[in-house]
From TrEMBL:
Keywords: Membrane, Transmembrane, Transmembrane helix
Signal sequence bounds: none
Origin organism lineage: Bacteria, Bacillati, Bacillota, Bacilli, Bacillales
Protein name: Membrane-spanning protein
Source species, domain of life: Bacteria
Pfam family, one: DUF2238
Organism expressing this protein natively: Terribacillus halophilus
Transmembrane segments: 5-23, 35-51, 63-81, 87-107, 119-142, 162-182
Length: 194
């Protein structure tokens, strides 16, 4: 897993640095903050290497970089946000599903395994939906702060965009929550094994 994180992180960091330089040369005045944010987001999985054990596996890392491709490369650099009106909402649904998937991995690793307890599937459903909704709210806050300080294109239609994105995020959480509900159905009333 470490090798995968190193390789993907370096590829994405290099790509983001190149796109940052191109944007600077084209006179994009917001490129410092956008480029810096993209480089930091590309390097985040490197932080996992400081932990000896992590609940995240290769599919989680690949999913993260898949979202970066869709958001930064296709969405921002190749202007999918402008070309396809459905792109933003779709990414909010998929992004909240991804956050819920990570939350489920953390829940299984940090709560179920050490506790060795009886667990209700509804607790998992609520936890997964809650984490997806919190993730959507944090992302919308970042968009709002970004529009107030750096750019003005993240929330183009104001409250309509914000509420549409929050509803899409909730929908993604519910979808993965339902998946977790049925996937973990056999665990109800049974003792978890570590």
């Amino acid at each position: 897993m470490k090798k995968t994180i190193y390789i993907l992180s370096l590829i994405f960091i290099c790509f983001m640095l190149v796109s940052f330089v191109i944007e600077l040369r084209n006179g994009d005045t917001n490129s410092w903050t956008k480029g810096g944010g993209r480089v930091i987001m590309s390097a985040l999985p490197l932080g996992l290497l400081f932990f000896q054990r992590t609940p995240f596996r290769i599919p989680h890392i690949l999913g993260y970089y898949g979202l970066l491709v869709c958001t930064f490369i296709l969405g921002a650099i190749f202007h999918f946000y402008d070309k396809y009106k459905w792109w933003d909402v779709t990414l909010h649904v998929v992004g909240s599903m991804y956050i819920a998937w990570l939350a489920l991995a953390i829940y299984r690793y940090k709560v179920l395994r050490p506790a060795d307890i009886y667990i209700s599937r509804w607790i998992i459903f609520l936890f997964v939906c809650g984490m997806a909704t919190i993730g959507s709210a944090i992302w919308e806050s970042i968009e709002f702060i970004g529009d107030m300080t750096v750019t003005s294109v993240m929330q183009r239609s104001g409250n309509t965009d914000t509420m549409t994105d929050l509803i899409a995020g909730l929908l993604g959480g519910v979808i993965l929550g339902i998946y977790a509900l049925f996937r973990n159905k056999p665990l109800e009333g049974k003792k978890m094994r570590g």
